[in-house]
Amino acid sequence: MSAPTVDPGTAGPTPPASGGGFGREALAAIARRLVPVGVSLVVILVLWTLFLQVFGVRALIGKTPWDVAEWLFGLPASAANRAQVLGDLGVTFVDAGIGYVAGLAAAGIAASVFVVSRSVEQALMPVATLLRSVPLVAMTPLIVLAFGRGLTATGVIGGIVVFFPALVTMVFGLRSASPWAMELVTVYGGGRLTRLRRVMLPSAVPAVFAAARVGVPAAMVGALMAEWLATGRGSGTRMITAVAGFRYIEMWAAVVVVTAACVALYALIGIVESLVVARMGLAGGDERS
């Protein structure tokens, strides 16, 4: 007797791709993230130099990339200069990290509640929109009076900056879930929380990472503002005191280091996103985010 044939159309599910295939896909995703970052850095350096030359900014105030590089690496006191700038950056990292984590966590909880209960969203979203319209500079003195000048006030200021754009992004991501998958869960007896856990949260992974990436510069800005207006420490205070003392090279170096840190963190989160999206098989995740 001849061996039975197997119809390809009725064959079992295709086995998952090998680890090598995932590794190549992950490397390609990382390259897609790093190449635009490198191009952006080159463009920033070129625009920085052209801006100083075109507008004739005096050398006392406007420092070129080469001036900053020399101050950080080419002088006998460069080691002390780097220690000073990086020490301030470490303080700013802690301040920004508290607001970043608090803002993203609050946004994730609020977004989940909003998509589960429309009535809660209709009651609270106008309040959130109203609070967002108030300039943070005007709110900072009130926050300082309520929470003092420590890490709590810094976390509140940074969390406010991160919370609102993250909330909008996460709500949009949760509501972009497939309606067919939602109906399937409902047919099998799943409730709102089941639909949230099984369908909405997995489909919102790219949106969550997008909120996390956007939150990096927002948290840094919030931390710098808090350091300037409230705590009196970190890179934010260093920039203000450097300008007041005519130490413009110190101010430019602080700006460059903070900007480079933001770009590096933004790229790192993008790389993690690419790996997670590739691992989960969310096709088109990079393009949507």
Q: How would you describe the overall organization of this protein?
A:
The protein contains twelve helices and no strands. With 289 residues, the chain is mainly alpha-helical. α6 packs antiparallel against α9. The N terminus and C terminus are likely disordered.
What is the overall number of helices? 12
Strand content: under 5%
Runs with pLDDT <50, length 5+? Answer: 1-19, 283-289
> In total, how many beta strands?
0
Organism: Actinomycetospora aurantiaca
Subcellular location: Cell membrane
InterPro entries: MetI-like, MetI-like_sf
Family: Belongs to the binding-protein-dependent transport system permease family.
